[in-house]
């Protein structure tokens, strides 16, 4: 169906290039998206070249082609990844390039007829090499959403396609602060607020966290040198960038061997075209020993078995109620937005920047995957645990404790 161009496309593209990836003159820029995202890809390319990019390299991933593979390819070939895809990621890291990923919901339900365990063996478009490059600070990067009629149909199934798209654009624009007179300045101000919150948490020198709520009693241990981060990040080459637009979280790197208890996801989780609902995970000795769900658990189980670190935590993030996304009261079925509406944890690779001491950093989790899922909300209280094991409320009903 033809989709009318929204005038906010160029405003969002400029924001992604200037505040998100912070493209510098002479940088090579990677832009990744899917068929249907062409307008946004072209707008980002235009903005990047206006800022002096040396070259903009475009990569499209088509879920319909992946469907053909899942239907017909031999079982033992589904995990094979073309080596040139990894070479491309490593090359961007070596060049100190920029990466802008466009996300949303396209072709919803496309893999519903595929055995979820089989679908989980093909992890593309996720790439281990991109995860390694990002975690090492090799590129300035950001992820931005792009509303489409397909996505609007998932979020607002009862609205006509164009009406649903208009509402989705309004909510995405609000979440991305496109209504601000200067969105770049607005994001720099928000980044400063998140940095201040992270500093406050660092001052408490927490030994762990506990999440408690309906279906949830989870303890997450932290390293002695775990440090909270939020807002802008800096590449190994010194480029300051904003990894996600939008972002409302502060996060840190947990000890992968010290997660205990059980947790119920508070929002649906989309993985490569499969929507997982009613997700429940039980941890023992740091590992996810049981993964169940009302729908789609097999996909996450498959991802959690790809390597030795895939069933351990690599991130824990806290989100309060002062951001733009939670108050919208919308489930977007897209992790970029949903994870910034609620506190979350991630299975898989850890951010080395979330650990200060080298000895602790060597113990941080490593994996080919990094999958966030939401575990927070108004009914979930987050407690901080100090070195003596004493608990105190950190976050309750969406508000930071005094």
Shape verdict: globular
Strand content: 25-35%
**Whole-Å distance between the termini?**
51 Å
Largest sheet: 8 strands, antiparallel
How many separate structural domains?
2
Could you say which structural class the secondary elements and strand pairing correspond to?
Answer: alpha+beta
Strand order of the largest sheet: 15-14-11-6-5-19-20-21
Structure report:
This protein is α+β, with helices and mostly antiparallel strands and 402 residues long. It folds into two domains: 8-183, 3-Layer(aba) Sandwich (Thermophilic metalloprotease-like); 194-400, no CATH class. The chain has helices at 8-20, 38-50, 63-72, 83-95, 116-121, 128-135, 149-155, 161-175, 183-204, 297-303, 335-338, 358-363, and strands at 28-33, 55-60, 98-103, 140-145, 208-213, 216-222, 229-230, 233-234, 240-241, 250-252, 254-264, 269-271, 274-276, 280-284, 287-292, 313-318, 344-348, 370-374, 381-385, 391-396, 399-400. The radius of gyration is 20 Å and the shape is globular. The protein is built from twelve helices and 21 strands. The model has no long low-confidence stretch (mean pLDDT 93). The strands form five sheets. It has an eight-stranded antiparallel β-sheet with strand order 15-14-11-6-5-19-20-21. It has a five-stranded antiparallel β-sheet with strand order 7-10-16-17-18, with helices on one face. Helices cover 31% and strands 26% of the residues. Helix 1 (8-20) packs across helix 2, helix 4 (83-95) runs parallel beside helix 6 and helix 7 (149-155) crosses helix 8 (161-175).
């Amino acid at each position: 169906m033809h989709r009318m161009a929204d005038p906010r496309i160029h405003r969002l593209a400029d924001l992604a290039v200037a505040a998100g990836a912070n493209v510098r003159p002479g940088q090579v820029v990677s832009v990744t998206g899917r068929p249907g995202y062409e307008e946004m890809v072209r707008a980002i390319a235009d903005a990047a070249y206006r800022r002096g990019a040396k070259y903009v390299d475009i990569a499209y991933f088509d879920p319909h082609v992946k469907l053909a593979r899942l239907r017909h390819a031999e079982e033992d070939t589904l995990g094979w990844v073309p080596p040139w895809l990894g070479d491309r990621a490593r090359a961007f890291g070596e060049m100190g390039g920029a990466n802008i990923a466009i996300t949303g919901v396209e072709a919803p339900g496309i893999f519903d007829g595929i055995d979820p365990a089989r679908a989980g063996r093909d992890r593309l478009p996720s790439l281990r090499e991109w995860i390694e490059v990002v975690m090492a600070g090799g590129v300035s990067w950001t992820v931005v959403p792009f509303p489409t009629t397909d996505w609007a149909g998932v979020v607002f199934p009862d609205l006509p396609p164009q009406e649903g798209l208009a509402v989705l654009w309004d909510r995405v624009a609000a979440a991305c602060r496109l209504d601000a007179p200067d969105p770049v300045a607005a994001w720099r101000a928000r980044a400063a607020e998140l940095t201040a919150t992270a500093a406050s948490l660092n001052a408490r020198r927490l030994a762990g966290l506990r999440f408690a709520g309906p279906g949830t009693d989870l303890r997450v241990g932290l390293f002695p040198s775990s440090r909270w981060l939020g807002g802008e990040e800096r590449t190994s080459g010194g480029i300051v960038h904003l990894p996600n637009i939008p972002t409302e979280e502060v996060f840190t790197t947990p000890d992968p061997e010290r997660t205990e208890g059980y947790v119920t996801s508070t929002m649906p989780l989309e993985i490569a075209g499969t929507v997982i609902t009613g997700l429940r995970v039980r941890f023992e000795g740091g590992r996810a020993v049981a993964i169940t769900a009302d729908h789609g658990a097999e996909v996450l189980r498959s991802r959690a078995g790809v390597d030795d670190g895939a069933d351990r935590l690599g991130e824990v993030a806290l989100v309060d109620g002062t951001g733009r996304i939670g108050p919208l009261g919308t489930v977007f079925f897209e992790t970029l937005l949903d994870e910034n509406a609620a506190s979350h944890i991630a299975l898989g690779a850890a951010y080395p920047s979330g650990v200060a001491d080298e000895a602790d950093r060597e113990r941080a989790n490593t994996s080919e995957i990094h999958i966030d899922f939401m575990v927070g909300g108004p009914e979930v209280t987050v407690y901080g645990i100090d070195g003596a094991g004493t608990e105190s409320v950190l976050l309750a009903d969406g508000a930071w404790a005094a």
